[in-house]
Amino acid sequence: QVQLVESGGGVVQPGGSLRLSCAASGTIFSINAMAWYRQAPGKRRELVSLITSGGATHYGDSVKGRFTISRDNAKNTVYLQMNSLNPEDTAVYYCNAFIAPNSDGREHYYWGQGTQVTVST
User: Fold this and answer.
1) How big is the CA angle at 33 (ends 108 and 98), to the nearest 5 degrees?
2) What letter does residue 88 receive in the DSSP assignment?
3) Which of 6, 13, 58, 91 has the fewest CB within 10 Å, making it most exposed?
4) How far is the C-alpha of 24 from the C-alpha of 117, rounded, in Å?
């Protein structure tokens, strides 16, 4: 059974920073891409950032230059450093990973439970 557990959310003032972490655990053979999504109230879930197993990264337009995604393959963990936060960044942030649990190599998408990020005075 594969689990993704996020941490690091909270309340921060505009202009502040937060660092999210997401650790994958359980039976894992390999991890391909890992990503962060977010969903604000009344809005669709959107891709924030993605990082491949080789370290290539992609960012949504609204977070380019402010957020940085990274991963530690030895720890099966992905991070999201969020700087210059503004109220529009308020959302539940979800970790997502494309994981092969077994040596057959078949990959499946897994989601974390989400962590709330609130940017407010």
Assistant:
1) 10
2) G
3) 13
4) 20
Q: Is there a contact between 37 and 114 (Cβ–Cβ < 8 Å)?
A: no
- Contact indicator for 66, 82 with CB cutoff of 8 Å: yes
Question: Contact at 8 Å (CB) between 14 and 121?
Answer: yes
d(CA 116, CA 100): 28
Which pLDDT score, from 0 to 100, does residue 105 have?
A: 84
pLDDT digits (tens, 9 = 90+) for 84-99: 999 999 999 999 999 9
Q: Is 9 helix (H, G, I), strand (E, B) or coil?
A: coil
Q: CB of 26 within 8 A of CB of 14? A: no
Residue 24 backbone phi and psi in degrees, to 5: -95, 135
